[in-house]
Sequence to fold (326 residues):
Amino acid sequence: MTRLTRREFLRTSASGAGLALLAAGCGPAIKGDFAPKAGRRVVVIGGGWGGATAAKYLRLADASIEVVLLEPNRQFVSCPFSNLVLSGVRSIDGLTFGYGGLRSHGVRVYHEAASAIEPDVRRVRVGEGYLEYDRLIVSPGVEFQWEQVDGLAAAQDRVLHAWKAGPQTVELARQLAAMPDGGVFVLTVPPVAYRCPPGPYERACQVAWSLKTKKPRSKLVVLDANANVVSKAALFRAAWKDYPNLEYRASNKVVKVDPSTREVTTEFGDRVKYDVINLIPPQRAGTIAVQADLVGADKRWCEVNHLTYESVKHKNVHVIGDSTIG
Ligand SMILES: Cc1cc2nc3c(=O)[nH]c(=O)nc-3n(C[C@H](O)[C@H](O)[C@H](O)COP(=O)(O)OP(=O)(O)OC[C@H]3O[C@@H](n4cnc5c(N)ncnc54)[C@H](O)[C@@H]3O)c2cc1C
Fold:
């Protein structure tokens, strides 16, 4: 398989004339080849941190590259800083962004989901139509493995993850604020690998701080599936000395949740009662990456050449962001 440097990647994707910017809603119906390719083109799947950054910097590096971005949502809510929404320090509005900035860089943004990738013919399927590409960037983030926790799939609306920032973040903040003083907030950490290794421990700091300052008789129980704090362990353990209301339990993988009794069960059979639950489920690469057979033997994460981020399984397909093995 040919290995490309970043410079070569940009050069080979850049020849040919770029097409004019076409704002979403102004384009043709999504049928057949709904945006025929004139020159060389990069299609980007996913307008989150990875995909949006790649799309922008491709255009900045060479404006003759036609960059087409597929993202179903019209607004992006940033996970970074969203733990501060839980503690009431920041608002979700300040973390919510539109796609006008990318359009101003000449990125053609379609608010559509990619439904399949056809690497052999270099096409991405979208609804009843398709888009051709020379290079494809896949950045669909993570998907949750609901089935790994008994009872979770049926209780998704009541057992919140808030691990994709948005309405769940706001609702979890509301539940934390409404919890009576003396209540128990349970936060579960999934087994590695998962999105943002320090994230759950940052969240623990925010929740513990919020409880200490606003509900001093309450407690936070962190049930970690891993044998120790996964990231920056010394830093977090030092910070937690200020929070005697935080009880950290390593090697406590949660395997069951029952919202009717407000209880989680660990793999060793321990039951823990909660007033508010924040269950962060086990994760894998975004569904489109799994369906396109970009994942490795673990069937969870995409394997790439770490110089070019080209998939080791499909040529001309580059996987970036949380879907890759970091
Ligand atoms: C609480 C929390 C705090 C964090 N804090 C930090 C931090 O401080 N610093 C940091 O570096 N990272 C942080 N992270 C991690 C960071 O959010 C992720 O690493 C980053 O979002 C990964 O980018 P991504 O593009 O892979 O996925 P995402 O940003 O999730 O974007 C994926 C996008 O793909 C779209 N998509 C999915 N499937 C399709 C499809 N079929 N077709 C089209 N589009 C699709 C989705 O709608 C989504 O918009 C944090 C994460 C969390 C949960």
